Amino acid sequence: MHEILEYVSKQRSKAKKVEALKEYKCDALKSLLIWNFDDTVISMLPEGVVPYEKNEVPVGTDHTSLRKEYRNLYHFVKGGNDGLSKTRRESMFIQVLEGLHPTEADILCLVKDKQLHTVYKLNRDLVEEAFPDIKWGGRS
Q1: What angle do CA 64, 70, 76 make, to 5 degrees?
Q2: Paired residues of 100 in beta bridges
Q3: 51 — phi, psi (to 5°)?
Q4: N- to C-terminal Cα distance for the chain?
């Protein structure tokens, strides 16, 4: 995901950014963008820095990826798995972060706080244009 978001951010025009998003369209990317840009997706995790151990092993050896883990993101938003205790939810989130490459863990932390736009040159208008099939609102 990091490479995709970096690539999109480096595009100079809105049209090129939209084209890049369409080119790399996948469910994981769309899930992250919805969590970040849809105001009705409410994070059930505390805001701010997450205390976790970064996974520093070389790329390709012992990491999972957001492409695999996106299916479990529902645990961390309101209405996804409300039966989880606060402690269990937070420990699960830390486990996911510790399994990801540090750049992907950083992305997930940004998305959790709806701050993706602070690092990557993206906004909801771009996402709406690239993925007109996304239904916005009414998620929580």
Answers
A1: 110
A2: 64
A3: -80, 100
A4: 25
Collapse the DSSP code of 131 into the 3-class scheme (helix H, G, I; strand E, B; otherwise coil) and give the result. Answer: coil
Question: From residue 45, how far is each of 12, 34, 69, 123, 139 by CA, in Å?
Answer: 34, 16, 17, 22, 16
Q: Which two tokens stand for residue 86?
A: 């606060």
Distance, CA of 50 to CA of 68 (rounded, Å): 21
Each residue's pLDDT expressed in tens, for the chain with a length of 140 residues? 999 999 999 999 999 999 999 999 999 999 999 999 999 999 999 999 999 998 877 666 667 889 999 999 999 999 999 999 999 999 999 999 999 999 999 999 999 999 999 999 999 999 999 999 999 998 87
In this prediction the pTM is 0.91
